[in-house]
Amino acid sequence: MWRSSQSQTRADARLLKSSVTAQTIINIATMRRCCDVDLELTAAPMNEPVLNAARKVVIKLAQTKMELPKNGASTREATSCNPMLSMPSRKTRTNNAGAMKCSLLKSVVPALVRPMPRIKPFRVGNVTIGGKRPVFILGPCVIESEKFVRRMAREIARMCKAVDVDLIFKASYDKANRTSVKSFRGLGPREGCEILAAIGKELKLPVTTDVHSPDEAKLAGEMIDLLQIPAFLCRQTDLLQAAAQSGRAVNVKKGQFLAPWDVKNIAHKLVAFGCKNFCFTERGTTFGYNNLVADMRSLVWIREAGYPMIFDATHSVQRPGGGGDKTSGDGALAPVLARAAMAAGCDGIFMEVHDNPPRAMSDAANQVPLKQLPKHLRMLKAIHAAVS
């Protein structure tokens, strides 16, 4: 792998040696291979120093028409190793002889110097996702009652206004994947959506909730600003189609079982069904039994592919089924992961908030106490300003 202690000049010089193989140049040209000074390829994403060296080397080779070796040059392994474009693979060798001429090098230079896909911001009500300001998707896990959720919405909106951050209010009308059949689920789709729509109208802010079937997506699309696809259902084509065709923006929770680079297939589905305004939310990856781990690299890789990226701090600290008949978790760590995600450059934070978490009717172990929200918002806003 790239050893940062070795100077950029030395790396450039080594890369320019005549022993550079055709395959190495192909991999450099894809901008996603990482190589050390001995030109050994790895599955790691290319960091900025190596990327800059690769640009200069390939351009130099194209300009000077440097001849490449005719013996031992691999002509396989042309697949990019950007995790967002393909699965990382080991270097393979073939017995095919030959070399890539500079005419081919010239053809890859434009691709090499082309910038990464740019994030396309989109509007959800009066809030922009993927823009210069971070968005905060905040609210209780579930609508416990109309009185409760209205009170929570007013308090959260007041706190966000005081700190000057953009808010999308969230709450679920149905927790369809509760661990136990005895657990509270919610008020149901129609009543829940009507309550959320009324809250949005009263407070003049966008609202979001999760949908679990094509019929629910159609119903919610009539009243809800941002439709959320649950992580367990993120690949369900019929659900994605219904959400896309609702005309609303869509937020897809990345499944706990899904690699970051696999979200491109979900994106392709949404685009095929006519949805142009969508984002993804990282909410942790399965890590053994009853546990999740939050991989901050996921935020970078998905954003590099051109998709706005939200980080779900409270669900990422869950211990699914860890309480036997309920999910447990490490709620105190949710703000810690939120800070790390904001420093990594995500476009917003998803965080569930409750005025009395121990008495919450769903996900009590992981919701952030309402009274602590202002200090977390101030810290997250400052971190975003520092890294922007």
Q: Would you give an account of this structure?
A:
This protein is α/β, with parallel strands linked by helices. It is 36% helix and 15% strand. It contains 12 helices and 17 strands. It has helices at residues 8-15, 22-29, 48-64, 102-113, 146-163, 189-203, 214-221, 237-244, 263-272, 297-304, 334-344, 373-387, and strands spanning 34-35, 41-42, 122-124, 127-129, 135-139, 166-170, 207-210, 226-229, 249-253, 278-282, 285-286, 292-293, 309-312, 318-319, 328-329, 348-354, 368-369. The strands form 5 sheets. Strands 5-6-7-8-9-10-13-16 form an 8-stranded parallel β-barrel, surrounded by 7 helices. Helix 6 (189-203) links the parallel strand 6 (166-170) and strand 7 (207-210). Helix 3 (48-64) packs antiparallel against helix 4 and helix 8 (237-244) crosses helix 9 (263-272). The longest helix has 18 residues, at 146-163. It is globular and about 60 Å long. The two termini are 28 Å apart.
